[in-house]
Amino acid sequence: MARLVEALNRFFGRVEIIALGLENERSAAEAALAKDMPLEAREHARTILSILPDSAVGLALWADAAEEAWLDQEVVTALSELAKRVPWRADVWLRLGRAGQRTGWDGARNALERAAAAPEERDAARLALLDLCDLDLAAGDPARAQRWLDRIPAPLSSAPDRDVALRRAECALAHGDLDGARAATEILGQPAVADGRAALVLARLALAEASAPAGSAAALPPGDVARVLDLGLRALVLDVPGAAELCAALVAASRDVLVVDRVRRVVRAAGALDEPTWAAAFAFAEGRRDDARQALARGLSAGDRTAAAALLRMAVETRDLGALDALAARASQGGAGAASAPLLPPDLVRLRDAAALSQAGGADGAARALDALDAVTGEGAAWAEDIRRSIVRAWLPPPEDTAAARDGAGARDASSTPRAGVAAWGEVLRELARTAKLLDRLDLLAATEALAVERERPLRAAVVGEFNAGKSTFLNALLGEDVAPTGVLPTTATLHWVAWAPDPFARIVVRGGQDRVVPHAALKDTLRALSAAGSKVSRVYIYAPIERLKRVEILDTPGFNAPDPDHIAEARRAFDEAHVAVWLLDAPQAMKESERRVLAEISALGVPVQILANKADRLKPDALETVLAHVRDSLAASAITSLTPPIAFSARLSLKGRLGDEAALAASGWAEVEALFAEQIVDASDALRERALRRKAGRIAAELAEAASARAAEDREAVRRARAAADRLRASAAYLRRERRNIAAVIDKALEPARRELAADLRPIAALPDERKRADPGIRAYVQERLVTRLSWPLSVEIARAAAEASVDAAARGARGVAEDTRGAAGSAAAPAEPSARAAAQVRAVLMGMVAVHDAPDELAARSIAGVVEAAIDAFAMALSAEAEVPAPAPASAAVEQRALALRAAFEAPAAPESA
């Protein structure tokens, strides 16, 4: 940068210096600077100032000499005084801001902002804007840093602005915007040998891409390690801030001896091997995690913020709660610069609290932990997801097989502790209901509430099979009473639900008609009468005081080969309601292709199936054994599993036997069926119900996860559009501020039609004396109202049109390296030509202020108001910036999605194999 004295000599002249005989001192000072003798130049400058204290030239000489002599405190003093003399000089403010940064002067940022606000000195303003961006990046505010970049005008040449592109990449990485970072680094290309900052950006991007969103070095593909290490070491040697942390992370995650040794040699040459960050990184690489933590703890105790950052990174990458505890303990003691920045970011504080709540156990602790995890984003997001999934997974322990359930029957009654293998249904159903409410899925909320009721009801066993397989006869034999109607064709066209009640009766649900309640003896006749009358029976509930029905309810289904599609649909509906299915085959024609198809469907739904071959009395023993072998082979070929190997029996003889015919009972094969039903269904009812509840709840969880993902995708797109719109508003505001003088000249001409209309409105008072116009408040109010009304809207529209053109211009600049949403989105969705209400109100306020202070506002209709238009443009730009900063409410859909996905994943986890 050129010396200040060279610029100010041309501006101020030397009359005073010559008059006071100080020209020799000035010449000697400039000659000393030219010979790189800053201390000698400083003495000559101080001599000038001792005689002429307010000399701008003398102050400039002092500032130049002190800066070259590295006397930064004197630079700040000299430039502070010089800025009072030439407050419009951006180069003075820029140098003052930079010197102030070096000395820690409180006014450094303000000086840079003064430099950035000087549109006429574009070079100095550009450098100030870059410095302000760097300040905010260092302070962890990439959004504000990005806004400084938006104010930098595009270069006049076709070459992209690499300085801007570099910082845009850094802002994008800080935001986690990998697409934006990639676009910006494409402009950078391959960094020069001495460009350590660009090398560090490229290395950080490679790490972030390797394992988004966590950015862990451990996930970097081996082939990319060498390239990233080269970039990182280049930045490290060039002493770029952040390079040591990146290289230490590479070392800590690496198990490659050559990589570790290469970095060790560089660190040893720098004499930094004993620094806590490096000691910990090499300990990690060698598998000495405890040593690594101790090294970082020592640095933390010594107040080393680098060690604190390394410990934080270690905690996140290795999921080490102990490291978070150490940081929290140190923060509570006020160590490591706690006053300047927290050792634990708020996200990780919430994560630590959530982990403690989940470890404490209990339903309330788990719920509070999940709520806390919902708010964790950024670098702790992946860790939060692990904790969330572990909490939800604990609700669904591997289910017991039926044998274990049978052996442990009654254990839940003997102890208040839930039996192993049983889901924490209170928490599961509460989470399902919460998610369904948040997604407005009332259908799934109702299904969840139905599951809560189902938990308290007996097991449901569906008796299924093709028409005329003897299902109702089997059901009557199972119950020991002739309860289910048989021998009546229409009765199999509907679902019969057999349940316990203290008195025997049946309730017939008629579609579109009144229910019928009848005794068992009248059930068949009533069904015949309804069929003859053409009434549609949708379901029959049969109640009986049979002890077995207290533990198992029976669903007697229509045949799958019935001619009416409604009957088949009703039979399939039983699958959703049943916990277990008993499939009856017609032994003489067992395992037809139609049966295999439906059995495969039931098996695919996860409903346990027991195969029974009915009508065994119609076959001879050899033929029956052949049939059973065929059934077993067909099941194996179709990958269908039966709870136990298929059993052959006769439902007809079984019913006779159960009603008193002992010979029929002995010949029926019922004893084996009875034992199977008792052991595999009744005694295992808890395990079968658990399996069915999980199947149904898992289906609900899958639907909720799909709905939550769809909602979250919509919200993410809405957020992306809102950010793009905000970026366009910022770009337009920056353009308006930057070009306001040129825009004002164009708009002033475009307002001619409005001014002619205004002149016509004011013509009646033109002939009035000036004293009357100034003294009459009514006339003055009329003039003010007409002027604001005629000019405010046209002026607002013209400024809006210029802002829209700025968006199109931003799109064109995108091809040369401006951020993407100013880059590409601007071209497809330019800022609207119609002003917003906020922007129009700001323009109106400027005009009202103008006419309020003008002695003769009616004269404004006949003169240029370019200065007022400039002020209106500034106000309009402020309104655009304010609109861009209005925070959009953060959608809760992301947290809902994560919890829904965690619950679905828990249901999809491999279950313990079911015992045969």
Automatic annotation (TrEMBL):
List the protein's name. Dynamin N-terminal domain-containing protein
The UniProt entry, under CDD domains, shows: DLP_2
Naturally occurring in which organism (per UniProt): Sorangium cellulosum (Polyangium cellulosum)
**Superkingdom assignment:** Bacteria
Query: What InterPro entries does the entry give?
Result: Dynamin_N (IPR045063), P-loop_NTPase (IPR027417), TRAFAC_Dynamin-like_GTPase (IPR051943)
Domain called Dynamin N-terminal: residue spans: 462-601
Note the PANTHER family from the entry: SARCALUMENIN, TRANSMEMBRANE GTPASE FZO
- List the transmembrane segments: none
